[in-house]
Amino acid sequence: MGGKVDSEHTHRSFSRRNLFQIGAVTAGGLVAGSAVAACSSSAQDVAASSTTTTMAVNNPQDALARLMAGNARFVSGEVLSQGQDATRRAAVSDTQTPYAVILSCSDSRVAPEIVFDDGIGDLFIARVAGNTATTPIVQGTIEYAISSLGSVLIMVLGHENCGAVKAALGSVHGDPPPPGQIGAFVEPIIPAAQSVQSLPSDQQLNAAIQQNARNQCALLKSLQPIIAPEISSGKVNVVAAEYELVSGKVLLLN
Fold it and tell me: Is residue 2 part of a domain?
């Protein structure tokens, strides 16, 4: 976007949400030399020298391409690690324009900013064990990024060897209920675990991980009144993906 404000999106954001009195809204994505929208001339000067040089984002397709390009750099070990310095911190201190939302597991091995080689202010992250979107808090968090921050892509990111999915499979196989409040994040994954019971036992875990990501993706696509209309208009997309722990690759799921 090169820092230009999307006036139509700004109108949508302010008329529907007006959350936290956001002063500048854009579809996200910065290029070298771009001025980040800010409330002071000094912040604009700092933004002009931002070190973020990854591709600009104008639509959901651009956003997905940028994520996957960043992941390819991460896998190859040729990361840019840009947008992570003092210049970038100052540039986004007055406003944020994350181009994508990542709903990921809380697993310590899955850090979206690292996995996608992005910088401060580029990604809006919602993390919960099992990467589920069934609670109002998670849904509202994601809706806020779409309606008020201008994010144009939502990725539900599951990962290999997920403990939350393992617990859901254990529950459908008759294991005792988990202690404390752990069952609260296991319960939403039960439908995915149930759907793979006919598979050989050594295939059930990964199949359930992928199905859970797809289920959460479908749920987010159906949410009214914010996300579903944006998808229908082509301004937002929701995709499911799985992260491979050893290779570092993010695989898009059909």
Answer: no
Largest CA distance in the chain: 62
Summarised one tens digit per residue, pLDDT across range 45-83 is 333 334 556 788 999 999 999 999 999 999 999 999 999
In the sheet that holds 100-104, the strands lie side by side as 123-127, 100-104, 153-159, 237-243, 250-253
CATH number for 107? 3.40.1050.10
Residue 217 and residue 230: Cα distance in Å, rounded?
15
Average pLDDT of the residues of the chain: 85
| Predicted pLDDT at 54 | 73
pLDDT tens per residue across span 88-107: 999 999 999 999 999 999 99
Quick check: is 200 in a domain?
yes
List the domain range (segments joined by +) for residue 203.
Answer: 7-253
Strand (E) or helix (H) holding 101: strand 100-104
Q: What is the dihedral of CA 52, 53, 55, 59, to 10 degrees?
A: 30
CB 50 within 8 A of CB 44: no
Distances 30 to 73, 91, 109, 140, 186 between C-alpha atoms, Å: 18, 11, 27, 25, 37
Long-range contacts of 5-8 (CB under 8 A, 24+ apart): 5/37, 6/150
Within a domain: 1: no
Counting the structural domains of the chain, the total is 1
pLDDT tens-place string over residues 114-128: 999 999 999 999 999
pTM for this structure?
0.80
Q: Which residues are CB-contacts of 54 (< 8 A; sequence separation ≥ 6)?
A: 30, 31, 66, 69, 70, 80, 82, 83, 117, 118
